Amino acid sequence: MFSWYGRARGYYFSLSRPKFEALTLAIALLVGLVIMPVLVFIVGSYALKSYAHGGLFSLFVDFYKGLVDLRPSCWIVLIGPFVFLSFFRICRHLLRKL
Question: What is d(CA 6, CA 3) in angstroms, rounded to the nearest whole number?
């Protein structure tokens, strides 16, 4: 049932170091571009009620406009998954050294 997952995982971990890091960055940025705004919308709708400018697609438009306008909050949302992943990898590396 999950043979595609096993093959994708095997391919991912068999890549050379630069390709592995580039793919990791690409996946993290894709998550920041697509998944994070959805999560922000869901949590914001629950905690703060409805979005002031409309629905989910309005948030996407505002988010992408914010990236173009170089708003720091939008860029933090975009690079957040990569920073979190990098922090996790550094902590794991340090704990393995102990």
Answer: 5
Is the C-alpha dihedral spanning 9, 11, 16, 20 positive or negative? negative
Distance CA(92)–CA(96), nearest Å, equals: 6
Q: pTM for the complete prediction?
A: 0.82
Domain assignment present for residue 57? The answer is yes
* Other beta carbons less than 10 A from residue 91's beta carbon: 10
Domain that holds residue 55: 16-97
In terms of phi and psi (left: phi > 0; alpha: psi -120 to 50; beta: otherwise), the region of 23 is alpha
- pLDDT single digits (tens) 34-70: 999 999 999 988 998 888 888 889 999 999 999 999 9
Cβ–Cβ < 8 Å for 74, 63: yes
